[in-house]
Structure to design on (740 residues):
């Protein structure tokens, strides 16, 4: 679609981007297909009904038949699917058939998800999850976790959506089921794409592609490739977009379901639209809308109607564009779909502006801006702010035009900076490199040794040659010997300094490697062996599900600890390899970041019966790197949870003083001695500590906090006494420094 510029009218591409999360809601359906749950409509529906009619009594077979018939209607008639699944659930509850209750609840969850009735869908999926957990059905648990995540994603509740997607990934990894991982990673990538975090979106889609290629699941591969093409088109990378479109179009879709084909075609259409290939994009969107209509997904069809309207607008066919925008806007209100309302509203506003009715156009723009801001859709806020700035300028309301222009420029800088684009391009390169890595890994050590040996030989050889040249010159031209001798000595000193620098750097890298291997061998192997042993005992029927349930809190605690440790190790490794942490500061309120972290850690706090309180005022802002601040707050809270006894209390607070913001984490934990305080931010192997419940760690989290706070021109203060708890205070700039 049209790109926005200082004097151009923004041509929104909200639909192409925001509908990605809605489309991923088909992931649970795809996985159930892969597991053999779906039944062919044309082939079995009549015979199944005949079998149901001839089967006497209400028993488990009766329930299975009703559930299977419901499955045949999921791409044909959703209301009929609800009817048969409800009948099956009623009988299953009456005869207390746990598997029947789980299967029928799952079908009802999918049906109501397709009808966009998220509350009912969530209810039935939660019931199905409880039943599957009771029976220990890992495959079904994973599918249901992804379905629940899809619902939260559709409701724009991203923290809960990410939590359930990651839980699903954990189960799929236990099952060694790469295709399931792939669909979960695609869903996570779609969430980051909606948030405007394109580097994380690309990264997760590449993870999905790697997983799907392991199983050679071609429909999923086509979806991942088309999604990556769509994201590259959003950042304006024509070459990469065309490359991934070509790869997606070469994939055989003969085995794809209608839903999978819908996602692939929609993504390709979105990519075409952003480069003004309106004819190609329109064909994709209309074809996708027909598929959405055939499977009864009204919300998805409405999004595609709005996308088609955008294409007609781009082609200059304004009457047809107006009709389709009106249709999408009206249906979006009925379905309570903010995505459709925002896009169609902006389209209607642009058409009214073209007709000279700027005042009416502004009403639509303001409504779209309010919805986009309420749901924190960065791309939508950016585009609508540009439209509002131009509209107010035409009305000669220059103060409002300037206000929205500032918002437009601020989001433009955060969404389209060169650093973000460069990171995304590197992710693509890293993916291609990773495919080759396994083939050369066994030879890598020998290659490094060989290259090091050759380097030494070259240094020795060139040193000898240099000395021979010097001696030759001295012998041949005696009267210039003192000049040549001085030059030779200078060259030798420079080479020596360079070699010393190289040796020092290699020594640091080697030390870091040894430390990392030491951590991995001790802190990871032990908990993993314990978890593996627990699962093995369950698999070998040495313990029952009830006994395993008693072990689950400890298993979850070990997993949470390991996850945080690995996350800190990876972040610390990135910082170490770069030499120092770098920050990309921006102005933003602290409260939303703190809320996200506190919500993520509430489960850990609940396990230890600790009150985790967020006491940060919504008016407090900071000028720093948002992602790094989130990591700092998370590590400080994890540290407080680790060293606070059960029934304790942890408070997260913030105050603004002068030009600084002070974010504090105060706990009622075991406190620290002056000797422990002195070693807090020093990287050393002896800094190993254990929490009140035996949680392990080596202090990398605090080191990471120290590096990130320093990179944001701040500092950390700590006050603590043994037995009286601790307070960690992070001091950061409250606003950007004045321009010189």
């Amino acid at each position: 679609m049209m790109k926005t510029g200082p004097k151009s009218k923004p041509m929104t591409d909200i639909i192409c981007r925001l509908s990605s999360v809605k489309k991923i809601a088909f992931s649970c359906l795809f996985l159930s297909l892969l597991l053999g749950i779906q039944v062919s409509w044309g082939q079995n529906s009549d015979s199944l009904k005949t079998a149901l009619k001839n089967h006497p009594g209400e028993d488990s077979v009766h329930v299975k038949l009703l559930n299977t018939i419901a499955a045949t209607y999921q791409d044909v008639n959703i209301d009929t699917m609800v009817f048969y699944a409800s009948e099956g659930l009623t009988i299953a509850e009456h005869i207390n058939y746990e598997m029947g209750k789980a299967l029928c609840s799952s079908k009802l969850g999918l049906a109501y998800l397709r009808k966009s009735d998220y509350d009912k869908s969530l209810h039935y999926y939660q019931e199905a999850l409880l039943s599957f957990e009771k029976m220990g059905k890992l495959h079904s648990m994973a599918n249901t976790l992804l379905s629940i995540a899809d619902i939260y994603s559709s409701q724009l509740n991203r923290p809960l959506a990410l939590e359930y997607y990651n839980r699903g990934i954990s189960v799929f990894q236990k099952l060694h089921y790469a295709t399931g991982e792939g669909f979960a990673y695609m869903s996570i990538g779609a969430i980051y794409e909606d948030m405007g975090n394109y580097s994380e979106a690309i990264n997760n889609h590449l993870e999905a592609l790697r997983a799907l290629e392991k199983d050679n699941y071609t429909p999923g591969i086509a979806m991942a490739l088309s999604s990556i093409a769509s994201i590259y088109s959003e950042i304006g990378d024509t070459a990469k977009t065309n490359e991934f479109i070509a790869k997606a179009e070469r994939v055989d879709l003969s085995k794809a379901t209608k839903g999978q084909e819908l996602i692939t075609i929609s993504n390709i259409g979105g990519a075409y639209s952003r480069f003004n290939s309106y004819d190609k994009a329109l064909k994709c969107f209309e074809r996708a809308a027909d598929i959405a209509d055939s499977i009864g997904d009204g919300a998805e069809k409405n999004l595609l109607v709005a996308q088609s309207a955008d294409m007609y607008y781009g082609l200059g066919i304004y009457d047809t564009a107006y009709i389709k925008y009106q249709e999408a806007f009206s249906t979006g209100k009925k379905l309570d779909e903010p995505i459709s309302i925002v896009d169609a509203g902006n389209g209607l506003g642009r058409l009214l502006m073209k007709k000279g009715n700027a005042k009416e156009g502004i009403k639509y723009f303001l409504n779209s801006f309010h919805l986009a801001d309420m749901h924190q859709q960065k791309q939508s806020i950016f585009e609508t702010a540009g439209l509002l700035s131009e509209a107010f300028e035409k009305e000669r309301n220059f103060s409002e035009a300037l206000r929205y222009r500032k918002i437009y420029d601020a989001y433009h800088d955060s969404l389209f900076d060169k650093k973000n684009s460069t990171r995304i391009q590197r992710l693509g390169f890293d993916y291609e490199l990773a495919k080759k890595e396994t083939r050369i890994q066994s030879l890598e050590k020998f290659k490094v040794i060989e290259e090091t040996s050759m380097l030494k030989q070259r240094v020795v050889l060139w040193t000898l040659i240099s000395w021979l040249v010097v001696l030759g010159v001295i012998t041949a031209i005696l009267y210039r010997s003192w000049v040549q001798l001085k030059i030779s000595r200078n060259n030798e000193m420079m080479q020596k300094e360079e070699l010393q620098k190289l040796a020092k750097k290699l020594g640091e890298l080697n030390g870091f490697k040894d430390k990392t291997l030491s951590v991995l061998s001790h802190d990871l192997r032990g908990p993993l062996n314990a978890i593996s042993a627990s699962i093995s005992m369950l698999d070998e029927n040495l313990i029952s599900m009830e006994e395993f349930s008693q072990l689950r809190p400890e298993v979850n605690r070990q997993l949470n600890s390991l996850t945080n440790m690995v996350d800190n190790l990876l972040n610390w490794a990135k910082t170490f390899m770069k030499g120092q942490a770098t920050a990309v500061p921006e102005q933003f309120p602290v409260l939303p970041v703190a809320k996200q972290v506190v919500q993520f850690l509430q489960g850990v706090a609940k396990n230890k019966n600790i009150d985790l309180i967020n006491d940060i005022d919504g008016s407090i802002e900071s000028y720093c790197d948002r992602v790094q601040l989130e990591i700092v707050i998370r590590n400080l809270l994890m540290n407080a949870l680790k060293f606070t006894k059960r029934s304790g209390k942890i408070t997260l607070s913030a105050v603004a003083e002068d030009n600084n913001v002070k974010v504090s984490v105060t706990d009622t934990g075991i406190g620290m001695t002056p000797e422990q305080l002195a070693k807090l931010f020093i990287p050393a192997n002896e800094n190993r500590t254990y929490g009140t419940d035996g949680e392990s760690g080596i202090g990398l989290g605090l080191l990471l906090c120290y590096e990130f706070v320093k990179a944001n021109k701040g500092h950390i203060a700590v006050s603590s006494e043994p037995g009286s708890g601790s307070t960690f205070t992070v001091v950061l700039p409250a606003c950007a420094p004045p321009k010189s």
Notes: The radius of gyration is 30 Å. Residues 1-43, 436-446 have pLDDT under 50 and may be disordered.
